[in-house]
Write a structure and sequence with these properties.
By secondary structure, the chain is of the alpha+beta class. It has a single domain, classed as Muramoyl-pentapeptide Carboxypeptidase, domain 2. Helix 1 packs antiparallel against helix 2 and helix 7 packs across helix 8. It binds zinc ion. Zinc ion binds next to strand 8.
Length: about 325
């Protein structure tokens, strides 16, 4: 395959470099090497080629009715809507990645959620990070999920203004909220962060929020009154520069696969267990075998509808 050596080279650089810059690099290399126009003509293949190489270069959504097909980590998105680059209470960041696409339910959510966030002192609204690609699907880097237009990363950095230029949106960095590898929040964490995460968790469209363990435990300590919203806030790796909001499958999207609901309760004990393991890591198992490398997801691994999403106008 002609494209392979160049692609392999860019993947090699991916390992050495930072994730965000190579996101677009490998996409561009691939499109250039294959000679494919990036938006209008899409190659649909079931030959075992990684699906991220098919979905990554596509620049526009499919002209289809909006629908999420499959699961958050194995699926695609028909009829995606683009989050406007700037709205009254948000800005989409890293526009060059072209990942500000989602199910219309996600766009609606971000509009109302960012308006709530803008009520917090010091928050003009939200800086919105990665959502999905124009047709969803696996990404060339950075995420296992975000495939069906129902996931969005929200920056922890309080937006002081919403008139950033495109260049500023490429170069500005979010800020980390963690201390001690995520066992605790640091001094940048504020009541407003908690209020904003609580607002997201209280929205009926939201299924889960992922954030680093120390933040969950801090919110468990600080929550007063109703604690039911804490159930949706789940500890996860990373997620200290941003938190991740995941919507439930929209009603009517019949092949969209919801994640099993979080266990009953506020999940605070579970989060304390994560913190304990960060502070006192269990000794490595001397008999552990390295996990076999997972073969990349191919189009054949995705719901059948994803071939038509990819091939549609
Ligand atoms: Zn995410």
């Amino acid at each position: 395959m002609k494209a392979f050596p160049i692609l392999a080279l860019s993947l090699g650089l991916t390992l050495a470099g930072c994730m965000s810059t190579t996101t677009t690099t490998s996409g561009i290399d691939y499109a250039g090497a294959s000679g494919l126009p990036r938006a209008t003509k899409v190659r649909v293949s079931t030959s075992g080629e990684p699906a991220k190489q098919l979905f990554g270069p596509v620049e526009s959504p499919s002209a289809q009715a909006p629908e999420s097909f499959g699961s958050y980590s194995k699926g695609c998105l028909a009829g995606a809507e683009q989050l406007p680059e700037t709205g009254p209470t948000w800005q989409a960041m890293r526009l060059s990645r072209n990942r500000n696409w989602g199910h219309p339910a996600l766009i609606d959510f971000l509009e109302r959620f960012s308006a709530r966030a803008a009520q917090q002192p010091g928050w003009a609204g939200l800086y919105v990070g990665d959502m999905s690609q124009p047709r969803g699907g696996p990404m060339s880097s950075g995420h296992a999920s975000h495939q069906i237009g129902l996931d969005a990363d929200i920056w922890m950095l309080p937006p002081s203004r919403l008139n950033l230029t495109a260049t500023e949106r490429e170069n500005l960095s979010s800020i980390s909220m963690r201390r001690a590898n995520g066992a605790y929040v640091n001094a940048k964490w504020t009541k407003a962060h908690m209020a904003i995460i609580k607002a997201a968790a209280s929205d009926p469209a939201v299924a889960r929020i992922f954030v680093f363990p120390g933040a969950k435990v801090q919110m468990c300590k600080d929550a007063r009154g109703d604690r039911s919203w804490l159930r949706k806030v789940r500890p996860w790796w990373g997620h200290h520069y941003h938190f991740h909001v995941r919507l439930a499958c929209p009603a009517g999207d019949r092949t969209c696969v919801d994640q099993a609901p979080p266990p009953p309760g506020d999940g605070c004990k579970d989060a304390e267990g994560w913190v304990d393991r960060i502070l006192n890591p269990p000794p490595p198992d001397p008999n552990a075998k390295p996990a076999p490398a997972k073969p990349p997801t191919t189009l054949a691994d995705l719901p059948a509808q994803c071939a038509s999403v990819l091939g549609a106008r």
